[in-house]
């Protein structure tokens, strides 16, 4: 299997694992939901978990891959405020935890680019 064939499946796997984690350990995600959002943090945790699972399924299927990958890129941009909140909330934690929280911020850029690359790589395929 070539790299271009593996890339969508790896991205789908990452999204699926993250989606499952939202249900397996929701408290972790509840804590990073920005306070200004309406509703409860748990509702947002579950909604984002469902979204990640749906995006994973969409990317895994060649017929829906391009649209799902573009939506995934937008999703990664949309969840960035949660990563910012985590970095702010964890600024006084021990160095390894603080580093992990700050490290999540720049990781969003390659994730967005990866999703866009998967979309571009799926053009003309079905």
TrEMBL record:
It holds the Pfam family DoxX_2. InterPro entries: DoxX. Its main location: membrane. The chain crosses the membrane at residues 43-61. One of its GO terms (cellular component) is membrane. Keywords: Membrane, Transmembrane, Transmembrane helix. It is found in: Membrane. It is a multi-pass membrane protein. PANTHER family: DOXX FAMILY MEMBRANE PROTEIN, MEMBRANE PROTEIN-RELATED. This is DoxX family protein. It comes from Streptomyces pactum.
